[in-house]
């Protein structure tokens, strides 16, 4: 019987551990099909593609904003696209820099995938002008072909955040435009403008899960 050295077994053990670690790092979706969401409680609705209930299910409404290049961005910009959206402001000293860094991870992940786009809304549109957004984009390595930083009417942006994307967690609390919108959430939207996931934009594990869920969504389409 052939004998192996301790060094040999140590090498094999090390390779097994490395393989296990790599497998753990490669996130996969928890389900074969992502649920749909229609309200701020984010109660999952398990509907099949083509289900008649989707005909009147919550979708992101029409809007018109302007991006860092001064180009108009509307719902048509994301026609037949999957996109991830968030809300930030350029002078934010707290959570926004980390959110932007994690959005950059998404930009890199889907850089060569024309099916996936990113959308970041400024919650201080009165100060985040096109020029300010352009400078911010250049400083953060934002690619206009992949990632839109948008400004526009404050009410439009706040209504989108609270009533369409449901990014705030203050359930039942009535808020107005005078109440500042500040959230770390990333929202995943499918090609039909349906919300399919919400994620903590500060958490690397959540971002990894988001990447996996985008790939699951692509299989669905």
From TrEMBL:
GO terms for molecular function: metal ion binding. Cu cation binds at residues 92, 96, 182. Residues 54-219 form the Thioredoxin domain. InterPro entries: SCO1/SenC (IPR003782), Thioredoxin-like_sf (IPR036249), Thioredoxin_domain (IPR013766). Keywords: Copper, Disulfide bond, Metal-binding. The keyword Disulfide bond applies. Disulfide bonds join 92-96. Belongs to the SCO1/2 family. This is Protein SCO1/2. It comes from Winogradskyella pacifica. The lineage of its organism: Bacteria, Pseudomonadati, Bacteroidota, Flavobacteriia, Flavobacteriales.
């Amino acid at each position: 019987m052939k004998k192996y050295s301790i060094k040999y077994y140590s090498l094999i053990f090390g390779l097994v551990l490395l393989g296990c670690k790599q497998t753990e790092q490669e996130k996969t979706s928890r389900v074969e099909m992502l649920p749909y969401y229609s309200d701020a409680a984010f109660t999952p609705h398990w509907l099949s593609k083509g289900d008649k209930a989707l005909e009147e299910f919550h979708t992101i409404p029409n809007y018109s904003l302007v991006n860092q290049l001064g180009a108009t961005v509307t719902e048509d910009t994301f026609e037949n696209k999957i996109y991830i959206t968030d809300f930030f402001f350029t002078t934010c000293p707290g959570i926004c820099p980390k959110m932007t860094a994690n959005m950059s991870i998404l930009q890199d992940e889907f850089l060569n995938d024309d099916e996936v786009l990113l959308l970041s809304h400024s919650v201080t549109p009165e100060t985040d002008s096109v020029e300010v957004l352009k400078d911010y984009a250049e400083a953060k390595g934002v690619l206009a072909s992949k990632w839109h930083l948008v400004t526009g009417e404050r009410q439009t942006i706040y209504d989108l955040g609270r009533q369409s994307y449901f990014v705030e967690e203050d359930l039942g609390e009535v808020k107005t435009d005078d109440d500042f919108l500040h959230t770390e959430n990333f929202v995943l939207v499918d090609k039909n403008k349906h919300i399919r996931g919400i994620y903590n934009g500060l958490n690397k594990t959540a971002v990894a899960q988001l990447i996996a869920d985008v790939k699951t969504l692509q299989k669905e389409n």
